[in-house]
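Running log. JK asked me to keep both predictions on one page so they can be read side by side. First protein, sequence followed by its tokens:
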Amino acid sequence: MSAPSGFREALARLASAQKTAKGAPAYSRFVNRKLGRLLAAVAYVAGLTPNAVTAISAAFTFTGIALIALVEPAVWLGVAVCLALVVGYAFDAADGQLARLRGGGSKSGEYLDHMVDSCKISALHLAVLISWYRFGDLGHHAYLLIPVGFTVVAAVMFFGMILKDLLARAHRAATGAPAPPAVAPSAIRSLLVIPTDYGLLCVAFLLIGAPAVFMPLYALIFAGNLLFLLAASVKWFREVGALDAPAAAAPAQSREGAFR
């Protein structure tokens, strides 16, 4: 297939080259991927590489995170942080789409993308911790445990999803098992899991200049993520456990090199 000749053709090609929306929460699925598609088409026309788009995403994201930690909450700060995080997240969706448009991504690009993601999800909540400690009128220091807990939950959830996928891919490589069939994404599920949506969190920072609203909203999003992680961890454990049965029956030599 020939390479796209311009923005319109690149955008049209991207529309049919999207990864599955299964499990994606509402903002990420209905808003961020579309923004990422536009940015991927622009990046393609501009001759940018996927790694360059990842770097742009990191620049916007970590600028927003730095503002949270260093600047006293105000209305203008909420707008600036929200824009920085939203744009950074859109570029995060664009790098993979650009890679597929260019014929496929690289292992190093996937590594870079995951490293940036793992850093930002922890740094974001640590920035909230710093902001609340420096500028917040908390009344009780126990409130600082909320961003601490969110840091742990976000890191564990990200690692759990990555590890589950890695174990499944290693299992398929070792046993020759087929990939699971594609399942039609559910709009209802996308709405139900919206508390786990990183995009929702980005938009929530628009209210950081109104602590009386932002703090309970942030705490509520944290509670939603915690409950999801507790339920998902049980489900993921069962799914990974189900991989053991066929692997145990496979010849020993076919399992050499499987991830342990």
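And the second, directly underneath as requested:
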Amino acid sequence: MDDRLAATASYYDIRVKNRLINDPDNINNTLQAGEVESKGFEFSLIASPAEGLSVIAGYSNNSAKVTKDNPVNGYLGLRPEEAGPEELINFWTSYSIPTGSLKGFGIGFGGNAASEHLTLNRSNGTFTIPAYQVFNAAISYTSSQYLLAFKVNNLSNEYYFSGWSTVTSQNLRNVALSFNYRF
């Protein structure tokens, strides 16, 4: 396709041994005795199917579980907290008019999504960060000397969080205006 399409796909099956776990005999000590299994796949796509049109997309799925641990820790058989969300999606598509009187005007639309994240996941309970989907849009004008862009992030004003054993609030709807000048 004349270098208009690039895709990457990967599958993995990772088994980590000697993961640090708490020593059942000494609370101030750790042992290299835990094990974690992680299986998944990732896919990314970069395409320019027509002049001025660009598409970037990605997807990942990660299934992970603790397969060996000190029973006192409470992680055995569960998804490790550091594994993050099981599914992640991202995409951005944009179009810039390539010719004519509107040459240089462009629009873009995209977003990110994540499945729920068990940020604390132990046999005595879990704390879940909910799944989210965030969408963004942009309009722009580019000439040989400058770029003017207006972008709206989080179009639906989604209240969402990220974190790893923490909870961090993410930005609600916001706008950005940018101007770049080339000398």
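Observation for JK regarding the second prediction: The chain has no helices and twelve strands.
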